[in-house]
Task: structure prediction
Amino acid sequence: MCRTIVGVSANLCPVDQAGKNIHSSVSCKFAESIKLVGGLPMVIPVGDKSLVKDYIETVDKLILSGGQNVHPQFYGEEKAIDSDDYNLARDEFELALLKEAIRQGKPVLAICRGLQLVNVAFGGTLNQQIDNHWQGQPFGTSHSIRTEKGSVVERLFGQASQINSVHRQSIKDLAPNFRATAFDPRDNTIEAIEAVDGSRIIGLQWHPEFLINEEKGNLELFQYLLQEL
Ligand code: MN
Result:
């Protein structure tokens, strides 16, 4: 096996109105991005925590993908908003995947909900509802970022870039072993985080998989995951 295997966590998506027919799915854009940089994409369905050791042994890199809100019970808060966009089974499984990836020293790219989950896993908290960060479909861009000097995102995206924004939650208290490396200049929302304790983890609040052909840095980020992280 020569190709680098990139495991991508899947969502649970009901495909009928009654919610009985549920698919394990994640955007095809991940597979496309991973293949473009020479990797072999594999989708990891939500499952039992007893499976995470074998999943992480099988993959070289892990992507935690976007989706539901992270349940506030994981950062010690009550649900403060009127939303049922949560999935405890997915939260628990992906937290276990993340923990095992750290244990086995496998690099992690955390996207959108993934970034929120990483922040929570390391002791951070979230804003449960923010304004001006929901553009609807993830195609095209809707706000800018400024990046921090000396960070990976500055190297890949430059000092400023345009990104998409499809999130209702955001980081409130940043986990202590992370540095915020990109911000929305309008409201200082944290848009990227990078580990400062030697953990091989980078998190983005936006969806780079939808911008690989549009904005410089996004495809290069997948290349960074494969070759450097
Ligand atoms: Mn945003």
Summary: The radius of gyration is 16 Å.
